[in-house]
Amino acid sequence: MSKVYKMDLAGRELSVEIGKVAELANGECIVRYGVAKQANGAAFMHYGDTTVLSTATASDKPREGVDFFPLSVEFEEKMYSVGKIPGGFNKREGRPSEKAILTARVIDRPIRPLFPKDYRNDVSINAMVLCVEQDNQPEICAMLGSSIALSISDIPFYGPTASVSVGMIDGEYIINPTVEQREKSQMALTVSSTKDKVMMIEAGANEVTDEEMYNAIMFGHQQNVEICKFIDKIVEENGKPKHSYEEHVVDHDLYEAIKAHITDARMEETVFTDLKQVRDERISEITAEIFDLLFEKFGNDDEEQFQADIDEAIYKYEKETVRRMILRNHKRPDGRQLDEIRPLSAEVDILPRTHGSALFKRGQTQVLTVTTIGSIAEAQKIDGLDANETTKRYMHHYNFPGFSVGEAKPSRSPGRREIGHGALAERALRPVIPSEEEFPYSLRLVSEVLSSNGSTSQASVCGSTLSLMAAGVPIKRPVAGISCGLVTGDTDDDFILLTDIQGLEDFFGDMDFKVAGTEKGITAIQMDMKIQGLTPEIIKGAIENTHKARTYILDEVMLKAIAEPRKQLSEYAPKIEFVQINPDKMAEVIGSKGKVINRILEESGVDKIDTEDGGKIYVSSPNADAIAKAVSMIKCIAEDPEVGQIYTGTVTRIMQFGAFVEIAPEKEGLVHISKLAKERVAKVEDIVKEGDVVKVKVIEIDDKGRINLSIKDCLE
Predict the structure, then answer these.
(1) Quick one: 576-638 is in which CATH superfamily?
(2) Which residues sit opposite 131 in a β-bridge?
């Protein structure tokens, strides 16, 4: 028997239906803000007409041979949910879209830290979008549904979590804004929380202040607290007892034996270096030493298993050492101060024939970003659930090859991490990208990670800004990015914030708080964590620290490499001019079967003319004179002639009474014989002949739209 629970969320009804479908899942719910019966848990979510089925399923036993928690999250976009048939030959849903992958990531990030650290059972979270009302985002339903499905299931989970989106219009914060509100909003913020702390932050913003962003996060958190109370009631009535699992801990005797031999002082000396490869070599030496020393006592003649046990124990020891050094001694592994940034450098024009390029370095992290400029017609077409997002003219791609971390592995198609980091950089730069009217081009940026020791996503933000400026793209302001890390103690007040975390501090720390922005304000935030939430004090401190660091990077490094966008595009980039005409005139510009526009192409010599709905025309050519000629021809067609205007036209026909002159493709006027010259003309052919190019003035347009021209009135 199904049960339905309802609450008001931002003036709309949130409905959760339990027990209707998916009975074999560990947990299920249908959420409508807006249904599966064989999962551990499931939730049928309704929010308005938006409906999402969320399920949680776990394996009976832990996966053998893994030293991590095998959690998988899928966000399934069903095209029927928006009344569309999928594109492509097969006409069915294929691989997940980038948006689906990014949504799966934001579902994953707030729940992953809330599982037991040593849980090794496979857990699968599935959010299936069944119906979409554009005002109510299915992503929020999916995040809520996943939390509810886990909370009512028998899967060990220290939730629930709640999630909302926050917008800001004229200084007022809005929970789960509608389509119209999202278009006006200065930010697009997603906040996930438990009853007590913030678990996840994902934000894009139009250069908002630190205070505005912090207050928005807290505003979203307050709403999440109320949603968590609502979920608690559902769990109280429907929750299953959590099942037991095989606990996984490092062998105590082995660990103590290692610590006795490798003293704290020696381990500190081992990890204390700013070079990743040096640290790795030292750890390898210690591991080999311990193996030889302790194998006879602890190995049980199984060398492979003993090696795995040693690796795990030394990893734990290394982690404890790094955290103790930071938290108690305020000593970072590379010797920096807590708020000190690694050595920085920036260089533009790395590649001679690309449209724009830049190399940004932060310590051992190196990212090369290349800008490519194309026509509007090359914008990415999007086939998804959002009816308001069908194309994208600015694209940012991020690549992370194996050699960047010293691994010998083949390059594959981008994974979730690569897609996520590319989206973050794209979101950070989008507010400063000029509008289509200001800059009628498509843009593709590719960030190639050449070397990685932490914070590659924010290095790609910095490198991308420099690359755009070098390419001559008139961005509004430069954007810089930086990460802030965290190490916590036993209480909420016992913590250390670290500016510009390197790889080791990311691996062993509790948070990666990435912030990008301009001198004016924040443009993007992404916060990942490994602990069960952040206090307001930590969030405020992280925002303050990253603001200071961002300003330093902009002023002392980036603007010294290139102070402003170049005034001219690269000689290798296409030249494009935008023309806005009356949409009613578009048919005249194109002509029957493209006759007119093909003629403009031929006579002007431009490479391409792209047209869009709304009277938008884009003219592309490497030759500026050719563009000017094509634009002039288009305007002549699109604009109704006015008395007094002067045109350069071609004589098309000779008559006894005068000559017809084409002032624009398919648009002619008559020069009467009396208007050919200042003196009396006996014969038209004495003055002009077919094919002559002449300057004419419009002297009359009669009530039938016929144009009368004069050559005489153009003569000095």
Answers:
(1) K Homology domain, type 1 (3.30.1370.10)
(2) 51
Give residue for tokens 């109704």.
Answer: 640
- Residue 209, exposed/middle/buried by CB under 10 A (0-12, 13-18, 19+)? middle
| Confidence (pLDDT) at 113 | 96
| Neighbour tally for 424: CB within 10 Å | 25
Encode burial over 345-379: b for 16+ CB neighbours within 10 A, e otherwise. Answer: ebbbbbeeebbbbbbbbbbbbbbbbbbbbbbbebb
| Helix residue ranges, H only, 330-435 | 416-429
Which residues share a beta bridge with 672? 658
pLDDT band at 384 (very low <50, low <70, confident <90, very high): confident
Architecture (CATH level 2) of domain 344-561: 2-Layer Sandwich (3.30)
| Highest CATH level, class, for 3-238 | alpha beta
For the ranges 166-175, 248-257, 383-392, 689-698, the one whose mean pLDDT is highest: 166-175
Tokens of 247: 């606990």
**Distance from C-alpha of 62 to C-alpha of 247, rounded to nearest angstrom:** 10
E strand or H helix at 380:
strand 380-381
Q: What is the topology classification, in CATH, of domain 252-329?
A: Arc Repressor Mutant, subunit A (1.10.10)
Q: What is the CATH number of domain 646-714?
A: 2.40.50.140
383: Cβ contacts below 8 Å, ≥ 6 apart: 79, 84, 86, 87, 97
Q: Where are the domains of the chain?
A: 3-238, 252-329, 344-561, 576-638, 646-714
Pairing of strands 172-175, 187-193: unpaired
Do 576-638 and 646-714 fold alike per CATH? no
What the block records as the tokens of 63 is 């996966």
Round to whole Å and give the CA distance between 71 and 152.
18
Pairwise CA distance, residues 448 & 400, whole Å: 7
